[in-house]
Specification:
single chain, alpha+beta, D-amino Acid Aminotransferase, Chain A, domain 1, OB fold (Dihydrolipoamide Acetyltransferase, E2P), seven-stranded mixed sheet, five-stranded antiparallel sheet, 18 strands, 19% helix, elongated
């Protein structure tokens, strides 16, 4: 049973950011936007709790961070930040997701094989002092002092008040797996669950082949999501993700429009029953649901003849990191021209340079 007695007690919903298209200017502090699990860490002596975005504790999944918190954070503090997993020179969100596992033995093994790091970026409490009502400029200064002696795997996020440097970070840091920039008002207090910060994320477009669909949960004559493909160097159609946010009326129209393209798996590049394990990734192999294991992932195959332009933030390996967004149909594009070559490659960047070696 926790005996924690802190001026700010768990659970706390983290302060959030609203998306804006460009880096804003003004009395702001800019930071890299980390691609991990948002977490508020509570420490009172030997009692440590790691909270999450949905306020559920994640303490049991990261035993190595509990030890790192005791070794590197002040004796009594509450610090907002991000849990990330670094593989080589970049962040790997998919590897991080695997850390959420019900078996304690698996958690222990993964904590050694793919240890996590904690990036601190805001201070809610220190000792007996509640910092949430104080301006961010003051919280940041106190956080810098509190984390000055900290060593890996606990880090302080870089910050700048120079929008030009923030723009450089936006361009460069993506190559290390970060997904944009966050801007925080210098005079703002800490407001749980309120969107008082700004986030600027990478937005790109890609022309993809529509290779199948899943029906919507509201009915068999309504499209739930469209399955997207790109041709790889070998000329195979690889599964890259899905789009799905359509208005209800459009879902029904789409269903009717796509019926002439419905085909059998025998005539489809994603005939997963035939393919061996070494073949190109397809919806059965790569589009598993991490959070809902029993979910039915079957789909209706379509002849790969329609091309759609989608918006996406960034790639993770050969797939879109998040669900892509519908932009427009591209009847002028030949499906075979939809290849990986059209995708913008971020310049590689070493994460150690961001964190300070």
């Amino acid at each position: 049973m926790s005996r924690m007695q802190l001026p700010v007690m768990p659970p706390v919903a983290p302060m959030l950011a609203k998306s804006v298209p460009d880096i804003p200017t003004g009395a702001l502090s800019y930071e890299p936007k980390w691609d991990g699990f948002r977490s508020i860490v509570f420490r009172d002596g030997d009692d440590v709790e790691i909270g999450s975005r949905n306020e559920k504790p994640m303490t049991r999944y990261f035993p190595e961070l509990v030890e790192a918190v005791k070794a590197n954070l002040p004796e009594r503090c509450v610090i907002d930040g991000e849990i990330v997993v670094v593989v080589g020179e970049r962040l790997e969100f998919e590897v991080l997701q695997q850390r959420i596992h019900p078996a304690a033995s698996r958690v222990r093994l993964l904590s050694q094989q793919t240890p996590a790091s904690f990036i601190g970026f805001d201070l809610l409490a220190l000792g007996d002092t509640d910092y949430t009502g104080r301006p961010f400029a003051e919280r940041r200064a106190a956080l810098e002092e509190a984390l000055a002696p900290a060593a890996a795997p606990v880090h302080l996020t870089p910050a700048t008040r120079d929008p030009a440097l923030a723009a450089d970070w936006f361009a460069q840091f993506e190559g290390a797996g970060l997904d944009g920039v966050v801007a925080k008002p210098l005079d703002g207090s800490y407001q749980p669950d309120k969107r008082t910060m700004f986030k600027i994320k990478h937005q790109r477009t890609a022309d993809c082949v529509v290779a199948g669909y899943r029906v919507h949960k509201n009915g068999p004559d309504s499209i739930g999501s469209l399955l997207l493909g790109l041709y790889n160097d070998a000329g195979d159609l690889a599964s890259v993700g899905v789009i799905g946010a359509f208005p209800a009326a459009r879902r029904k129209q789409l269903f009717t429009e796509l019926q002439p393209l419905v085909t059998t798996f025998d005539d489809h590049p994603w005939n997963w029953a035939k393919l061996d394990q070494n073949a190109t990734r397809h919806p059965r192999s790569s589009e598993y649901s991490r959070w809902n294991v029993g979910k039915d992932l079957s789909f209706v195959p379509l002849r790969p003849e329609r091309v759609v332009e989608v918006r996406y933030e960034h790639m993770e390996g050969t797939r879109f990191r998040h669900t892509a967004q519908f932009n427009r149909w591209r009847p002028d594009r030949a499906p075979r021209s939809c290849t990986y070559e059209q995708l913008e490659e971020p310049v590689k960047y070493d994460l150690a340079d961001i964190l300070g070696r």
